[in-house]
Structures are given as C-alpha cells and as structure tokens.
Design a protein that fits this description.
2 domains, 10 strands, alpha+beta, 2,3-Dihydroxybiphenyl 1,2-Dioxygenase, domain 1, 16% helix, four-stranded mixed β-sheet, single chain, 29% strand, Signal recognition particle alu RNA binding heterodimer, srp9/1, globular
C-alpha cells in the first residue's frame, strides 16, 4: 500500500544573515519582497514572497551561509557548491538584471534547460546560495 505524502509544501524558510536590517533592505530592493513588520534590534525579519510564503531572516553572527557541497550534481562527480532552496519567478531576466545591479555573485548567464525551464544561480550578500527558475516557455512564444 502506497503511503500518502504527509508533507504538503514548504511554508517558510529560515535564512542566516549577519545584519538583519541590511539584509531586509536588500531583499526588498533587489528581490521585491515585502517586509512584514519593522525590524526590531536583535530579532529577525519576515520577508513575504509574491505567493505569500515567508522567508525569515535570522541573525547569525557566525556568518555560516546556506549551502553545501555535493558530488551528485555534476556529470563527472566533481564537487559542486549546492543551493538548498530553488525559487520560482515569472521574469528571470528582470531578476538577473536586478541581481547584477546589486553587485552580488550571479552565475554568468541565465541557462535554458529546455523542459526544466530557465535557471539561474545566485547568492545574497551573506553568501546564501539559491537557484531561481522560470517555467519552460512553449515553442514559438518569445522569451522576455
């Protein structure tokens, strides 16, 4: 008997940051997320994505960014610095431009992965690594 999945979706994610106020301002300015309430000293911040899901920015004075190394992501088994979160966007080109203007590390270019859509890896100012993807565009439809 096949067991029904007991987890529905990711409700929120917790991100380590060294300066909550500066990070909240960056997530607002660069990614367009909304700050739920004013940042309180010594506390975290809640950033709201377009879908309504929350990203918690939590103070992490030790500065351990969110990423890990895996050998399962490359064809030759070489180590790859992996992102633990992949976001979805409706406008990956505008996001790419906004990231580049902010001065953070961004992959060389948006990749077209065919049926897996358009993809881009980036880091926030604290070095937390993420991937963003845009659903595949049907054949004959111009890409923005």
């Amino acid at each position: 008997m096949k067991k029904k999945a007991l987890l529905k979706r990711i409700e929120c994610a917790y991100l380590p940051v060294t300066d909550v106020a500066a990070s909240a301002a960056w997530y607002e300015r660069v990614l367009g997320l909304k700050l739920r309430s004013p940042v309180q000293p010594g506390r975290g911040a809640i950033m709201i994505m377009d879908s309504g899901q929350w990203l918690f920015l939590l103070p992490s004075p030790d500065g351990h960014p969110l990423h890990f190394t895996t050998t399962a992501w490359t064809e030759d088994g070489s180590p790859f610095e992996m992102f633990p979160i992949c976001f979805e966007t409706d406008d990956i080109r505008a996001l790419d431009e906004s990231l580049r203007e902010s001065g953070v590390w961004v992959e060389q270019e948006v990749r077209d992965e065919g049926g897996c859509g358009l993809q881009l890896n980036f880091k926030d100012p604290d070095g937390n690594k993420f991937q963003v993807w845009q659903q595949p565009v049907p054949a004959g439809v111009p890409v923005r």
